[in-house]
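Hi everyone,

Forwarding the result from last night's run.
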Amino acid sequence: MKLRTVTRHLKESFKSLIRNGWMTFASISAVAITLALVGVFFVIMMNLNHVATSIEENVEIRVHIDIAATEEEKQTLEDQIKSMPEIDTVVFSPKGEELDNLISSLGEDGDAFKLFEQDNPLNDVFVVKTKDPQDTLAVVKKIEKLDHAAKVRYGQGTVEKLFSAINISRNVGIVLIVGLLFTAMFLISNTIKITIVARRKEIEIMRLVGATNWFIRWPFFLEGMWLGIIGSVLPVVAVSVVYYYAYEFLIDKLAGSYIQILDFSPFVFQVTGLLLFMGAFIGIWGSVMSIRKFLKV
């Protein structure tokens, strides 16, 4: 495409935005509101996903070894667990360490258990983590069948509910975002449809003088892109400012906790790029849908 033609298309797209001022304003406002909601849901969903991933990474399987097991049998059990393809790490925790952890976790009440230091009734333990936390239940069932695995603990009941809640929240977030994007595309599409109807005579004249289909379409594509990009600027600013203050407020309160939100940078810049891309994409897509349906060129 020649530079002169590109310049002409750009000018026409800007002229159309100005000429259809109220419709342009309405479309940009609709895109801004929709993308603001998308941005908010996206930020919440990504942080929930980050927190969920952190929680999942803390899910571990504790394999209590049979007290009567010999060192050779313990080694065999460890090798069997490590040979499973789902396993990430296997850490041996001797019963003395288990007793120390129990005492420290109970605080002052744990002093009573110091009496058992000479005759420790606890089991040695293998602390197992899977590569994918979602494989925890399947791995537990495999380990329970192994010899000398006296008990297998993994937070039964809580883990299942945790994974279920995480999966539901992720799926709901995706559905909401996709729904909002389609709403934005529908709004832009309708706006451009009205513009196309108002310019039918102009389009007919262009066809009569030999303008190609793409020559006629390009200004509408660009117009849709500008509507999307301009409409995404306000949501970008709003989401960035709100997240900055939310991050500053929460970062100290969550310090030392396993629950952490995503760092302001580079997360906000990633959100900015995503919203600008979404704005441009839904604008162009809205134009494409309008032209396909209303322009017989």
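The longest helix spans residues 158-198.

Cheers,
N.
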